[in-house]
Amino acid sequence: MADILKITPLEPWIDEKTAFISGSRLTENALRQYQETAFWANFFRAKRLSPFYKKLYTDIDLTACNGFTNIEKLPLINEHDLRKFDKQMLCVGQDEIHRIVTLASSGTTGEAKRVYFTESDQELTVDFFANGMQTFTKYGDKVLILLPSATPGCVGDLLATALRRFGACPLPYGIVDGCEKLLSFMSAEQPQVVVANPVQMLLLAYYYKSKLEKSAVKINLNAILLSTDYVAASLVKKLESIFNCLVYEHYGMTEMGLGGGVSCKAGEGYHLREADMLFEVVNPQTGKNVSVGEYGEIVFTTLTRKAMPFIRYATGDRGRFLPGPCACGTVLRRLDKVKGRLNDPVDIGTLDEIIFAYDGVVNYSGSFDGENLKLVLNQRSVYSEANH
What percent of the chain has pLDDT over 70? Predict the structure, then answer.
C-alpha cells in the first residue's frame, strides 16, 4: 500500500515549473491560474507571429480573451489544418528549427503532417521524460528502449538523454528485430525496466514464457512502460503475469512533442504534463467542455512551445477525465485510458480487451464484408523464431 500511495513525481516537477508564476506551492487552483495565464500569453504570441493564427482569430473579440470560459469560444483545429497550413503555424524563423517530424498520410494522395520543434521545444520533452520515468525507474537502473532510437531527436534518443539525467542507464535497442536475438540481449544485460510498443512486448512475453519452460535465463524486471498504441487491460494482465512486474502506460502523440502523460503506481489514469499543456475533453460538435466523467474528444493546447504552438488541437481520440482524486494523493487530474478514435467504425478498445484475453494472440486485423466484421488473428502457437 505504501508504494501505491507514493505520489507521482510529476507533481513536484510541475510545482517547480509553475511556482514562479502561481506564487504558491502547487494546488489545483494555483495550477489552473497558471494555465489560464499561460494560455492567453500563448494565444497572443501565436496571433502576432503566426499567419495561420492571425487569420483564424481575425474576428475574435480581444477584450474577451481571458478566463477559462472564453477559451471554449475559440475554434478547434485539427490534423487537416496541420497538413494544409504547417509552415503558416510557425512562430519562429526557419533558422531556429531544430527538428522536423514528418508523419505520412493514411491516404494515397493526402498531405503529410509535419511538426516543427526548436531545440528548447525538444528540451521540454526530455524534461518530461526525465521526471515521468522516475515513477518506476531509479538511479542505476538499466532501461531497455524498444522504440526508434537511431536518429538524433527521435523518441528513443530523447528518452535515453532523459534517463541519463538522473543516473539511469539507457539501452537503446530499437524496434524488435527477432525474439530470440532480443531475449539473448536481455539475458546478458538484465534490464530493470523496458519501454515498448504493447503488441511487440506481448510477442516477446509469449516467446519468453515458452523459453522459461525450458529453463532459460530469467529476466527480473521491475516495470514495463507501454507506449505508442492503445493498451488493453487484458494485455496488461498477461504481461504482469509473465514478467511478474507492474505495467505502466504512457499517452502521447507527435503533436504533443511525443509526451503527454503517464500513469502512476495507482494505475488509475494518466497524470498529464500540465505545466506545458492544457488538456480539455470536449463535445466535438460544439467545442464545449463536457462534464468530468463524460466521454468526449481529447483536445490540448501547448503552453510553452516556441516553434509551432497548437491551440485547442482536436486529437480525434475519445477519452474522459476521471472524477475524484488519485490514490497516489496528487492534485493533478487523471485522464482515463483512451477509448480509441472517434471515427473508428467499431469500438477498438472493447475489441482489444476481448481478443487479447485469448492466450497466444499477439495482433489482429479486420475488415468489413457488408455489415459483418471479419477478423484475422495473428497467433503465436509455436514460439519459435520461424513463426515470428
Answer: 83
> Dihedral of CA 190/194/196/200: which sign?
positive
pLDDT for 107 beyond 50: no
> What average pLDDT does range 186-195 have in this prediction?
96
**How high is the mean pLDDT of the chain?**
87
Q: Which residue's C-alpha cell is 542507464?
A: 169
- Helical (H) or strand (E) element with 55: helix 51-56
Task: Tell me which range, 151-155, 228-232, 310-314, is most confidently predicted by mean pLDDT.
Answer: 310-314
What are the φ and ψ backbone dihedral angles of 326, each rounded to 5 degrees? -75, 150
8 Å CB contact between 373 and 196: no
Quick check: 373 pLDDT over 70? no
How many residues appear in the chain?
388
**How far is the C-alpha of 177 from the C-alpha of 84, rounded, in Å?**
36
The partner residues of 282 in beta bridges, in order of sequence, read 289, 297
DSSP character for 219?
P
How much is the pTM?
0.87
Does pLDDT of 361 surpass 80?
Answer: no
Over residues 169-175, mean pLDDT: 95
Q: What is the 3-state secondary structure (H, E, C) of 144-182?
A: EEECCCCCCCCHHHHHHHHHHHCCCEEEECCCCCCHHHH
Which domains occur in the chain, in start order? 10-358 (3.40.50.12780)
Strands (E), 277-341: 277-282, 296-302, 313-319
Contacts (Cβ under 8 Å, ≥6 apart) of 158: 122, 125, 126, 129, 258
Among residues 246, 249, 275, which one has the least CA distance to residue 262?
249
- Comparing 4 with 42, the larger pLDDT belongs to 42
Beta bridge partners of 376: 365
In 10 A of CB 31, how many CB atoms? 20
Contact yes or no for 50/309 (Cβ under 8 A): yes
